[in-house]
Hints:
- The chain is mainly alpha-helical.
- It has a domain at about 20-70 and about 130-215 and about 225-245.
- The protein is about 50% helix and about 5% strand.
- Helix 1 (about 10-40) crosses helix 5.
- The chain is elongated.
- It is found in: Membrane.
Amino acid sequence: MGQRIHFVVDPQGWCCMGLIIFVWLYNTIFIPKVILFPHYEEGNISVVAVFCYYFCSLFCVASLFRASVADPGKLPENPEIPITEREYWELCNKCNMMRPKRSHHCSRCGHCVRRMDHHCPWINNCVGEDNHWLFLQLCFYTQILSFYTLILDFCHYYYFLPLKKENWDAFVFRHELALLRVSAFMGLIILGGISRLFYTQLMGIFTDTTSIEKMSNCCEDVSRPQKPWQQTFSEVFGTHWKILWFIPFRQRQPLRVPYHFANHD
């Protein structure tokens, strides 16, 4: 099943996502030029370190773009409601459309989203049933990339051997200290914020509760852990193969759990 493209027209979201892309580009361009390539050429690090950095960077930006353009689970205008599940659907009081329980109306996007977790301005999209797994991957790889960048910044000054700096006239070396200070500052800010967000997301999956449900405190039977954590994670990622939970270059296959299953276990 192909994934539909979902594009949100929101200037605020564009600015937030543009800031994230700027930070990614900054570190992807300057960190290799200042640290990775010079130390690799002088034999201080192996090619594996360079490969791992670009690997994390690629997976980070791939999950970012896929999460931002993926359909989070937008409901069609005239959904077909299975006869056996009609009692588990409800009427949205904002768009006057029928929706399955645990769906919510996003005022910024203007429609209901299945199992909506929250609207994230940093990806300019809602986080719902169909793209939650990509958002989790984005948080995961952003943490790894930020932590890796901070380690490289630290090792460059306190562990690696000094560079010969044969190309001292290059821009990146004339402004090396400023560039790395900016990189370290952004890395600390992003790592701190994303780590807290990622922890919150993991706890929500463990308890099978969305962020909206936690804030509204209206689903007591949902807030209790009713399923094994392997099952809740498999439903989010659309596969029981745990290795595929880390791959953003694939299509999610829903496990087709009935919408009312979580509330009527």
